[in-house]
Specification:
The chain has nine helices and two strands. By secondary structure, the chain is an all-alpha fold.
Length: 261
């Protein structure tokens, strides 16, 4: 089930990929070398430590995985209850929640355990990856790049070989997404360094999400206005045609003069 079914503009997808890469670098550089977006590494670490009998170390990754799962459940709950007041477009709720959590994380004092931050980022990453799944008609991920790379390489192979030339668009879209993710990771690494913004770097991701929210809101309003105008035109069309027909002069039968003689 998708929280948001309308495909995103490529620029929106790229901006969200920048945020995804940024947050991965942010938690890794500023918060203990942990990747909070994708849970593959965390599951592997749990298995490795458990196999070595290091149960305390293994258990240390479980809260992050749990926060990610909670974010997935929250996103699906929003999708299932979109008929409730204020939830007809859960995208707004998701982006506002992301922004609020990241601003709160940036405001946390240094004494707060790193686990709190990584759990918060894992939660919002799950919200984002569940909510945004399509750029135009191409499936993609905003918080991890493995699937994007696989689809990109497949499309890049099928396009020049002539097997499927329509894959050119897919390859170009995903190339932009992958590069945007990498750029976000680079920016996040620099901004999150101890000599730079450190933990306050989360504000940069929150600011970019605010821009995305504003762009989506503007597009949604324009689309609604266009649809409303089209609906009015469709309703008034038959009525206008009927009035025009009723007011038109009736044809004069053959053999009858203008005066009816």
């Amino acid at each position: 089930m998708r929280v948001r079914t309308r495909p995103e503009h490529p620029a929106t997808g790229a901006a969200l990929a920048v945020v995804g890469g940024f947050l991965d670098a942010y938690t890794f550089v500023a918060h203990g070398g942990v990747f909070a977006n994708a849970q593959t590494g965390n599951v592997v670490f749990v298995a490795i430590h458990a196999a070595q009998g290091q149960w305390a170390q293994a258990a240390g990754y479980l809260p992050i995985i749990g926060a990610f799962v909670l974010g997935l459940v929250a996103a699906e709950w929003l999708a299932a209850h979109r008929r409730l007041p204020g939830l007809h477009d859960p995208t707004r709720v998701v982006l506002l929640a992301e922004i609020a959590v990241l601003v709160a994380v940036a405001a946390l004092p240094a004494s707060v355990p790193t686990l709190v931050t990584t759990m918060a980022v894992g939660f919002v990453a799950a919200l984002q990856v569940t909510t945004f799944r399509l750029v135009r008609d191409t499936t993609y991920s905003t918080t991890m790049t493995t699937g994007n790379l696989r689809t990109l390489v497949t499309a890049a192979y099928e396009w020049p070989t002539g097997y499927d030339r329509t894959q050119r668009v897919v390859a170009l879209r995903l190339a932009v997404i992958v590069l945007a993710f990498a750029a976000g990771a680079g920016i996040g690494a620099v901004a999150s360094a101890p000599g730079a913004l450190g933990t306050r770097a989360a504000l940069l991701a929150a600011a970019l999400l605010a821009v995305v929210l504003a762009a989506i809101e503007t597009h949604t309003r324009r689309t609604a206005a266009t649809e409303a105008t089209g609906a009015v035109a469709r309703r008034s069309g038959p009525a206008t045609a009927a009035r025009t027909t009723a007011g038109a002069p009736r044809p004069v039968p053959a053999g009858v003069g203008a005066e009816g003689d």
